[in-house]
Amino acid sequence: MQANDLLHLAEQFGSPVYVYDAEKIQSQYNRLTKAFSKVPNLRINYAMKALSNVAILQLLRDMGSGLDTVSIQEVLLGLHAGYAPEKIFYTPNGVSLEEIEEVHALGVQINIDNLSILEQFGAKHPHVPVCIRINPHVMAGGNANISVGHIDSKFGISVHQLPHLVRIVENTDMNIVGIHMHTGSDILDIEVFLYAAEILFDAAKNFKNLEFLDFGSGFKVPYKKDDIETDIEELGKKLSKRFNAFCVEYGKDLTLIFEPGKFLVSEAGFFLAKVNVVKQTTSTVFAGIDTGFNHLIRPMLYGSQHHIENISHQKGKERFYSVVGYICETDTFATNRKITEIKEGDILCFRNAGAYCFSMASNYNSRYKPAEVLWMNGKGHLIRAHETFEDLLKNQIPLPVEAAV
Description:
Oligomer: single chain
Cofactor: pyridoxal 5'-phosphate
Pfam families: Orn_Arg_deC_N (PF02784), Orn_DAP_Arg_deC (PF00278)
GO biological process, one term: lysine biosynthetic process via diaminopimelate
Binding site for pyridoxal 5'-phosphate: 218, 356
Active site: 328 (proton donor)
Radius of gyration: 23 Å
CATH class of the largest domain: Alpha Beta
């Protein structure tokens, strides 16, 4: 997408607004499938927690993607978007047995990540196909909040608990069809990924009737100029060869599953915000914009860096700015960042705003959530309207008259 296209969309739909480039999502999907084209049975399940707008789900559905979901609500959204139940994979954490049973009743593949629920579910539903999430005890990921495969993680069943796990499966005569792991997000070193894969292969040898192995995802995308990213093509060569060899050793062609979220949608996203005020203090120039961490929390939560550019004045003189929001707390998007000269009314563009951005938005300070637009075939399509005051009040119930003092 060009800056002029983005400026036009900000004018057409107002700010703040999220914009997603359909062509980029499609190219990332094709890049991943091409990298693993030597694997006979490959399945991509989009991790919809990254960006759950129904239009995005439908776009990926039409490309052949399945869905990775983490809640019954995400399962219901996937079904609403037209996914067949067998194309939806459900990997919750810390949910009740009742929710897992509800999801199972919808015909979705369930993935269980703790021994207690596994034993309870197996005792009640021994013939239901179940996947098991393993914790490989591998520290990987770009931030502690997104590193989920280490020894102190709440996710998965410890690989050291395999004997206990196998005993539960044997005692309940459960139908285990898959083994799953996810070490974390923003993985740079593919050797770490390959090391964790060997742990998954070893775990898989304990189960005779598997249909698939799910390697999660965690591929890193570039967030700034010259930033490093996961070498998908190299990983594809190495893991494909090892996976195919394991299938021969196992005696059966298994399906290889990935659950990319950020990899598919992050670079496709742009977040556009208008500059409300330029404020000079004794040491800092602040650019205050019409948004805050209620719309984009990643810089504050993860310390993530989103490239910011002034698309209203792309060729101006560069100055140092601290870009801040309008929330009544410190919500700093960038500190002393070099940006072309900013004036009030300019539109700033945040890059890599497709993953874990709108999906983590809130109504903090009673601010409305922004609109979402899909750029497709050279045209912007509104896929979520700006919220209104009525949306804030929708589920609120006034104090009953008889309860008033």
